[in-house]
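User: I'm new to structure prediction. If I give you an amino acid sequence, what do you actually give back? Let's try with this one:
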Amino acid sequence: MSRILKPKVEEWRPVRRFEGVYEISNWGRLRRPVTVRGHHAGDFVRGSLRSDGYINVALAWRVLRRQVLLHQIVAEAFLGPRPAPNMQVNHRHKDGNRARCWSTNLEYLSSGANNADQRRHRPSRYATGAAHPKTKLKADHIPKIRRMIQAGERLQAIADLFGVGYGTIHAVKFGRTHKGVA
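Assistant: Good question. You get back a string of structure tokens that encode the predicted 3D arrangement of the chain. For your 182 residues, that looks like this:
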């Protein structure tokens, strides 16, 4: 696995739409370059860690106020604007630490490619089927359900027997869930 390293030299750039009020570094640090309303020049802006692991920061200047994810500010400053509206900022590091907003960790990917990358590198967050911690159907239920479907049982009757909804059994029948279970 390739390790992504923090840039050796910290470089500062203005934050778009907040030029002269905020600067962002390639290390993912946000600061104020000028004194504004009791906040001294050089003060760092602390963000808050969200439950999903991303860092959220509040930017304000006169009437313009925004809640922004820190990694998106870094990407915009060091990678440029989004190449297309459907592109998302992806963290390339494999440890899943979304608080590391180094410019070397970020890239633009399409929504589908970003989701595929997350499933590949952080599969525990994307467990599906019998591996999902909240599933009502266990791996040993699936072969029984499939045999009942082949025998012509009504899907609603099977759903009632296993304590799940009709849609769950329908998804098993057509292979949308529990694909890996024989």
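You can read the tokens as a compact description of the fold. Here is one thing that stands out. The chain has a mean pLDDT of 83.
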